[in-house]
Amino acid sequence: MRRRRFLATSAAAAGSLLLLPGRAPAQGGAKPLAGTTLNVSCWSHPYAKLLTLFIPQFEQETGAKVNYETPSFPIYNQRIDIELSTGGSAYDVLNVTFIYIGRWIEAGWFVPLDGYLKDPNKTPVDWGPGDFLKGLTVAFEDKAGKFYAIPWTGDIYMAGAARYDIFTQAGATMPDNFDALLATMKAINKKDGVPAFLAENHYGWSFIPFLQGFGGNVFKNPPDDLMPVLDTPEAIAAADYFSNLVRTYGPDGAISYTYEMVVSALKAGRANYSPNGQIFLVQMGAPDSKVAHTCNFSICPAGPKGRFPGVATHGWGIPVGSRKKDAAWQFIRWAMSKPVLEQMIARGYSSITRRSLIESPEFKGKMTINGHDIAKIYVDTVAYGTQGYMKYRTVPVYPQVDKQIDIAIQNIASQQMSAKAAMQLAQQNSLQQLKRAGVNL
Amino acid sequence: MAFERASFRRLSFARRGTLPATARWRRQQARAFALGLAPALLVLAAITIGPTLYLILTSLTPADPVHPHSLADFSHPLGNYRTLLGDGEFINSLWVQAKLSVVTVVLQLAIGLGVALLLNARSRFLEAVRTAFMVPMVLPPIVVAIVWKIIFTPDISPLHRALADIGLPVHSLIANPDLALWAIAVADTWEWFPFTMLMVLAALQMVPGEPIDAARIDGAGRLAMFRYILLPYIRPTLVVAGLFRLIDSIKAFPLIYVLTNGGPGTVTEVTNYYAFVESFNFSDWGYGSAIATLMVAGVLLLSWLVGRLDAGEALDE
Fold first, then answer.
1. 3-state helix, strand, coil in chain A (%, to 5)
2. What pLDDT, in 10s, does the model give residues A398-429?
3. Cβ atoms A297, A87 nearer than 8 A
4. Which residue of A has its CA nearest to B176?
5. d(CA A275, CA A388)
6. What H or E segment, with its residue span, contains residue B199?
7. In 10 A of CB B47, how many CB atoms?
C-alpha cells in the first residue's frame, strides 16, 4: 500500500513537472514539443524584445523551435490584421493589440482561453490565472464573458516631472487636478529655460483623459452606441484647455513631438511635466537620464468630472488558424509564468501584470525611482480601468475617430481653428468616416 | 544603254534572289526577339499589370478584411468613386499634392540644373564634389526623413541653434501650418536634386564642342550660350528628369510620415498618405484602392501629356 502510494505520488510529481513552465522533462527521452515549430509574433515593445533573450530556455526545455519576430507597432498590426482576416495558419501565438481587441476578438479570430485556463492538465493551479490584474484582464473578455488573451503589459497614463526641483523652487507640487495643473504650468514655465508641459502628439491617446475629465467622451456609449460626441460643450472645453497647455507651455514645435521625442526631451531635462505612459516616464530614472535625481511622479490629474487615466494592455492569444494550439498555449503559459517574469524584472521590465510580482520587494525596489513608488501609482491606475471608460478605445472604428482627434488638437494648438470649429469639424468628419465604415448611427 | 539594261537586269535578279531571304531573316529575328522577351514580359505582367488589375477590381468593392465577403462585392462598383467626389479630405489632399509636386519639381530642376552647370568641367576636385552631392540620393528615404526631423526640431536642431546664436531664432517649421509644406519641399529637394543634377550633367557632357566654339568666336556671352546652345541640347533631358521627379513626388511618403504625419491638421496630407491611412489605419481597402487607382490614372495622364509635349517640341524643331 505504502509502495503504491509512493508510486502514485511520484507519478503525480512527474506529471506536474511536465505542466510546470520551464520544467518539462523528457518523455521517454523525448522533449514534449520536439519537432514542433511555433511561429510567434509581437510588436517591438520592450517586453517583446526582452523575451527574445529567454526563448532559448523554452526551446531547450520543450524541444520546440520558436520563430519569433518583433516588427514595429504599425507594421505588426497591418501584417497581422491581414493574416487574421484570411484565417491563415502562419502564426501560432500572437499579440492581441489593445486597439484591435474589438475588431480581432469580435470577428472570432482568436481562440477563447477559458478551456486552457480551467483544465488542470493544461494549466496547473499554481500558475495563477487569477494573479493578473483585473483592470487589465477585463479588456480581453467578450460580452459573453469568454477570455481571449493573457495580458503581458499594462500601459497606464500617469504624470511625471523631469525637473521637480523647479516645482519646489516655485512652491508647487505634483498637480492633482486640472486647475492645479494649469496654475503649476504657469508658475514653472520657462524656469531655468525649461518648457513646462509636453504631451506626445498622438492626441487620440494623450488627450482623452482630459476629454473625459471634463465630462466629455469620444462616443456616446461605447461599444453599443458609437455616435461620436466630439462637439459637445464639454469636449470643446477640454480641447481648448488641453491645446492651450500644448501651445503655451510646450516647447517650440510641441505638436510634432512623438512619444520617443517626449521621452528624450524629458530625460535630457528639455521639458518638465508630461502626462504619459509609465513605460516611457520611468525612463527618467534610467542611468543615462540627466533627471534621475530630480524627477517625480504622480497619478494622472483629475478633471471637474473625475479621474480617467488611460489604461491599455496587450496580451498573448492564439489565432483560430493555428494548427498547434496546445503547443501555443504552452508557450503563452511559459512566457507569462512567474519565473520568466521574475527574470524580466531583474532586467528592468517595469510593466508587470501579475499582482504577486508587482507587490514583491524586487519589483518595488526596481520601481522606486528617485524615492517615488511607481508600482503603487501603477496598481492604483489599473484599478481605475475596471470602470469601463476605456471601452471607446477597443471598438473597431476607433482609428477613424482617433485621427480626427489628432487633427482637431493640431488645428487648435497651431491656431488654425478655434476649439469649437475644430471639434465640430472633427465631429462632422468622424460621422462621415463611421457611416462609410458601416456603423449604424 | 545596253550596259544600263544589263545592270538593271542584274540588280533585279539580285533583288529577286535576296529579298525573300531578308524577309525570312527578319521574321526569324522578330520571333527570336519575341521569345527572348517573353519571360521578361511575363514577369512584368505578373508584378505590375496583375496587381494593377487587382487594385482596380478592389476599388470597385467595399473591401474590408473583417468582412471577407466584401472583397467580392461588386454590387455598387462606382460607390467608392462617388464618395470620393464629395470627400473634402480627399480633395484637400489633391490640392496639397499639387502644391508639393509643383514646388519640389521646380526647385529640383532649378537647383539640379544650376549645380550641374557649375560642376560641368573636368577636374578631380569637381568629381569629388559631384560624388558628395550624390549622398542624399543614395540614403534610404527613412534616414533622410529622420535627419530632417532632427534639423526641424528646434530644441535639438543644430540649424535652429546656429540661427538662434546669431540672433535669428526661427520657430519650428513643421509645426507651423504656413511653412510645414515648404519644410517638406526643402527636405525632398535636398534628397532628390542630385538626380536632376546627374541627368543634366550627363546631357551637358554630350553637347558637341563645335557649336560652343562657334558661339564663342561669335562673341556669345554665358547667358546667350546657355539659352541658345546648351538649353536646346539638354531640354529633352530636363523634361524626362522633370517627369521622373513629378511621378516620384506623387509617391512622397516617408518624409510626410516621419516629419508631420500629414499635419499640422491636414496641411501636409498628400493623396498618397491619405490612401495609406484609409487602407491601413482604417482597413478600408476598397476606398484606399479607389484613391490609388485615381493616382495611377493621374500619373499615366501626366506622363502622356508630358510625352506629347516633348514630342511636339521635337517636331517643331
1. 50, 15, 35
2. 989 999 999 999 999 999 999 999 999 999 99
3. no
4. A414
5. 21
6. helix B180-204
7. 10
